[in-house]
């Protein structure tokens, strides 16, 4: 299955974006987010970016005030996921121009569209920023 | 115009929510918005529909229920404009999941959109389908998706590929249709399509083996060529990351090559060159390069053997290990665990670095390093490694100590070259981290101590010394108290001194002091106090001069609030005062505890604990409130008779103490189970032994029988000991220890001691018109109270019996233990039989004979039949 979920959480622990590729009920989601976020926020800079939680791994990275957490299966290549997170941030940066947390909050649906172009059903679809952003730019022009 | 119409824009709502200072305020705002949205939905408001949906998605993300918006999604999907469709599909994917019924309504819209002229809309539909379709939808829409795999636009093709993955996962039968289009995707140039094509092929190969064969034959050269092209390609701004072109594609290709090469030598040969090239030429300064190298190493390790490549791979890992970046080290440790299987020697070379990692400040690295060290240990390096680990134990932090202790204990147990070293190490561990040591571990220690008769003196002196220094470690106190009780005289008289010891002088009253400290200090722990009381009693027999003092101490507990202690102290007091003559016989040195039996029971209990821990709710059904109460159960039984007639020697105390203590509450930590289970001798005293213990799908009947098994030896009450019978084909694959081998199919059960014990006639225990049950008895020498019964069932009717189940109940003074039956189908007319073994322990042996109520249930011609009876005609002196 590859990627199980992608979360963007700020330093206070509030979820800014959540995309799940497997079904969990609302309570489970909140519990999961709470636990994971607590674990990741408690870690220092020196510690490595991988955390093991239950039966999957969490790969996380911090960009300014926002934590990007990706939950993956145990057999996934963690370093590749780190690259993927970076690619995601760069794509959003190119679209929004110097993206920050507020941009994601107020244009949540655009962020989702971008993520959808990049990941489908738990696997990475597209890695070229131009290809990802074309449909979104077209849509902006149309509306 | 409704005053509550959703005039607020999404932006304003978000601002309002952010402005809330408390959770209650936020809830109020959300409630108001939801009400407005609901009103708008009722009115079928067209204009603001997509804004409402956007708001709903935000609210959903915050964690509030939003199911009333699901129909809105559908309406939006059905509308004609692209933005509306977009939001509708997004809402669909976020707010719904494949289990909802509403999803079926979307199927038609999806079908239309899949055939739409606008490629972006087709893309949308594919996306939605790929993320949440259910099995029925997959079946309906599969032909469309197949067609789209060859669409002109690459964006659509790539989405169709990922969508196909979900379809074949949901409906594996359709996999054949996708093989051909998938392999043609592999020849594409567009990176997006390539990545998804590779992914599709990977999943196809996992799902269907003929796809695997096909891809292996046809596509490997193509794949290798593609990888080579990418690795050698010049700078391309589109896909470049840190100087490497599209590392994601690199990694995916390597993964697919791994799946193709696994187990197939020809395929592996094709890949050797390109793997070598990637491994040597990739830059490892940036994370992207390292990611590729990591994947490459994994692939090299999994495909068929090629010496040069393997050396290359392990070198790369060695470089990773000494990298300063924590991420890389973590990844290297992970890989090394898999590399051990392949080439243990090379990994041993890095032992020192790995040991350093155990002490690292990062928790994830420590855990991985510890597991790796555990796998690295063998007979030659166990001593230095254990030394290092124990040193680290002293400085590690609390959460890690539990893991570390468990690992050290199991290492020491498996590899200890000599008993004295084992005892030394265990003492060190106990003094450091006794509180983390599980019960089974210190029980095993006691068993080993009792077996090492020449080391008794040494052990008790070492324990005494350790006891003086670290009294807060529970397990240490318990073991020390037991040993002092048993071997107190050796302690005082300095018996059996070894050369390495320093002489210590301990007087009799010192020993009593020590035990007294144990009682007084650990005010809360029932087990320790109970053990201390027994130890005092033993000391009173060994050192008659201290009897008075001991009596005083015991008497202090007469009014204890805990029933167990009260009972013990009253009874021991009784023994001390009135029964001086039998006291010494009562408290003789215990016989050597049988290690094989014990380790067998432990292996069985390990499996029990594993399968009960997967079936957690059943764990505590045994009605035993604390695991500490378990050893008490049998003591209660024995001393519940009139105190004037102790029915068994002190030797049985510990036997039952240890044998009984299969505490269900000791659920071993998840990580330590799989390596141990495989190597322990699978003695199926308990019925779980045949199925792999870690299977969480172990049937409920197994869990039930395992918890019942715990009950049988523990509960000396009128327990209904029943065991669901195993399927006939699940005979034990493990090497049977003769005394314990009970599942020998339909053959005769080897009973090693039957020529030694007195012969008893076999008994037709139960006979009806349709069934006969015969008992064959045997006893082991030296254990007159326990009888082994082999029950044979014969079918006297012309019908086959299925789901055969035998249950038995015994009165209080007996203990019954049932082993799994040889099968649960009884062929007709005596053409075969089922055998089942029982063990009965009669605490009133010689005075009362055995008596048993039985119940037999089976299915004949699909009708349930139940037969009951009572067996009174056991031979007198069983």
UniProtKB/TrEMBL annotation, chain A:
Residues 3-142 form the AP complex mu/sigma subunit domain. Pfam families: Clat_adaptor_s. GO terms for biological process: intracellular protein transport. CDD domains: AP4_sigma (cd14832). Its main location: membrane. The keyword Translocase does not apply. The keyword Membrane applies. InterPro entries: AP_complex_ssu, AP_mu_sigma_su, Longin-like_dom_sf. It is found in: Endomembrane system. Keywords: Membrane, Protein transport, Transport. GO terms for cellular component: cytoplasm; endomembrane system. It comes from the Eukaryota. Belongs to the adaptor complexes small subunit family. This is AP complex subunit sigma. It comes from Durio zibethinus. The gene is LOC111303146.
Automatic annotation (TrEMBL), chain B:
The keyword Membrane applies. Transmembrane segments: none annotated. Residues 758-875 form the GAE domain. One of its GO terms (biological process) is intracellular protein transport. GO terms for cellular component: AP-1 adaptor complex. It is a peripheral membrane protein. Residues 688-707 are annotated as: Disordered. Keywords: Cytoplasmic vesicle, Golgi apparatus, Membrane, Protein transport, Transport. It comes from the Eukaryota. Subunit of clathrin-associated adaptor protein complex 1 that plays a role in protein sorting at the trans-Golgi network and early endosomes (TGN/EE). The AP complexes mediate both the recruitment of clathrin to membranes and the recognition of sorting signals within the cytosolic tails of transmembrane cargo molecules. This is AP-1 complex subunit gamma. It comes from Durio zibethinus (Durian). The gene is LOC111317850.
